[in-house]
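Suppose you are handed only these lines of text.
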Amino acid sequence: MLSKQTEKALQNRSAIREIFEYGMKRGQEIGFENVFDFSLGNPATPAPKKFDETIIKLEQTMDPLKLHGYTDNAGIMEVRDAVAKNLNKRFGTDFEAKSIVMTVGAGGAINTVMKTILDPDDEVIVFAPYFSEYDNYVANFYGKLVKIAPNFPTFQPNLDELKKAINKKTKAVLINTPNNPSGIVYSEESIKGIAEVLREKQKELGQEIYLISDEPYRELLFDGAKHYFVSKYYENTFICYSFSKSLSLPGERIGYIAIPKTMADWEKVALAIKTSTRILGFVNAPALMQMAVKECIDEQSDLEYYAKNRQILLDGLTKCGFTCAKPEGAFYLFLKSPIADDVEFCEHAKKYDLMLVNGSSFGCPGYVRLAYCVATDKIERSMEKFALLAKEYGLQ
Ligand SMILES: Cc1ncc(COP(=O)(O)O)c(C=O)c1O
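From them, the structure of the protein bound to pyridoxal-5'-phosphate can be written out as follows.
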């Protein structure tokens, strides 16, 4: 018999997966070139050439027992050192190898942090719209996800609501910038504002409140947008990073947690994070991938590709009469549904074989998400479909 929690998870099937599976079915019926699938956040550009070359070199030159063996639970020391140095060079931080724990992607990183800090019924606050897996990541440890309503139309975090939401049960605030699903990048003012509220509340309540920064899209920035490195603004910050998007490696499951020295008891926390990685059964991040990302730490997937897609999509949809939140990062565009019911709008878009994900599944009814990590010509060809859709809603 399945657990009650698993039964619940089965019922809450991911809206993204559902629309993706529908798109696959349609593809078999009408040809995949005729399906305009904007549902999945799977990178559309290959990993940098150096990544493949590195894998081959490692396979040819390293002792296989070492290459494929268990590593320290926190990861290989030289890899952690390379990550720390890379962060310090780029963001002016003060990490050392001991501050870094290599993880199984950002999903593994966030689950590891939750395992480390949550007792049952502890609360984690998120700002909608938010990545829908957070519900599961917090429920996995019997915590409660507290959702702050979207701040229209900027989608910057609502600090007044944050103040009201914090109480004795609050263990953490979980943020994600550049944001999935909105493509919004949090401003420096927002990050400073969150830090001020948390500092004030920590003092008032006499307890630590962690800020967890989920940043797999940190490098995917457009139009001069900037990422403000969160641990420089707030002491008790966990940085959860992934190479899934920046190096186009989502299937390889590699990322890290960075624990700043400003965090209360940081060495004990780092040891606890390492222990959580082990006892969750991850044991260690994939060894070969650790070594490969060390060699590719300064590499990046093709940002220009996403920048071009973003511009074509934004211009095209605006011309059709749709209203969009201006995407400054990640590879998502958030479009205002022309009717209040975003689920119905997504259903209707299927008539033109446009696969969109409803905003309700990200805690933001009234909007829909388009993942533009697709072939550029698909975006170009989809415009006539969007024009027909817009016409039906009187937008043209
Ligand atoms: C906001 C956000 N966080 C975490 C993840 C999980 O990333 P990973 O593949 O590194 O586990 C994703 C994946 O799409 C994401 O969009």
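What can we learn from it? The mean pLDDT is 96. The pocket of pyridoxal-5'-phosphate is lined by residues 41, 105-107, 131, 176, 180, 214, 216, 242, 244, 250, 255 (CB under 6 Å).
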